[in-house]
Write a structure and sequence with these properties.
Helix content is about 50%, strand content about 15%. By secondary structure, it is an alpha/beta fold. Strands 3-2-1-4-5-6-7-8 form an eight-stranded mixed β-sheet, with helices on both faces. Acetoacetyl-coenzyme A binds next to helix 2, helix 8 and helix 10.
Amino acid sequence: MIQQVTVIGAGQMGSGIAQVAAQAGLQVKLNDLKEEFTAKGLAVIEKNLTRQVTKGRLTEAERDEILGRIVPRTDLTEAASKADLVIEAAVENMEIKTDLFRRLDEICPVHTILATNTSSLPITEIAAATKRPEQVIGMHFMNPVPVMELVEVIRGLATKDEVYQRVEDLAKAMGKTPVEVNDFPGFVSNRILLPMINEAITAVYEGVAEPEAIDKVMKLGMNHPMGPLTLADFIGLDTCLYIMETLHEGFGDSKYRPCPLLRKYVKAGWLGRKSGRGFYVYE
Ligand code: CAA
């Protein structure tokens, strides 16, 4: 039984994962490097839950119980030494992730499953940093985590069937719909989503249409909830570039070449919503 979950990284994804885990009745340790980061993550969770109270979907007592199940910890050993499952949602950097997984492998009990929320890095390579590659798996949540139904569950080369099954069951208990995927660059979600976004950026680059027009075509013509450029700003243009580079390098195919305009925006510090400017300007 998975009861104790440790979430590493209290940013947008990590705090969302901690929220849905606590809502599913699990005990959660939320870990980040500094107290101000865990405090910020907890404040977002509290705001989300309070909105549910206002809408009559939760009582104040239920909100407080859920919040009470999330304990912030900046020390990795304290955060992970009793975990049944660790879900890592730290920055998308292979060196940082392999270092974290090496440390987690030493800190965690032998039964602990180590999952990563990476959006495109190879699960198999992350798993190889540990002595338990059969217990390492991808658990890719979508943004915003409390709202989006999907979790891509990615098998590394060595992932055991039993580990896959336990993670699939847990994703369901968290109110999500898991989909089984094998370990290839970008998995399924980003292999398909990011080339579409990159193509939308190329359409801007080539002067086919203005960003607003491109988004309107995809929203009204294809019923997408957000146009691809609004979505790119939402995901973060640095993340979009990083995923395109992972696809380009992983497949060695020029069809995944990142659009030069995407590179230029990232170099300019236009990263989308989080920096106040991307394809749109945010106040
Ligand atoms: N956190 C928690 N709840 C949120 C939220 C957030 N950040 N943003 C919106 N919500 C909730 C709202 O409170 C609202 O809840 P209720 O229905 O209970 O009132 C609900 O979501 C709908 O929100 P809105 O009415 O404000 O706006 P909307 O109808 O436009 O929906 C959206 C917002 C759900 C984000 C929708 O625009 C959407 O689905 N966009 C596409 C999102 C998407 O594609 N995500 C995947 C990104 S790719 C990814 O994550 C993978 C990767 O590796 C890069």
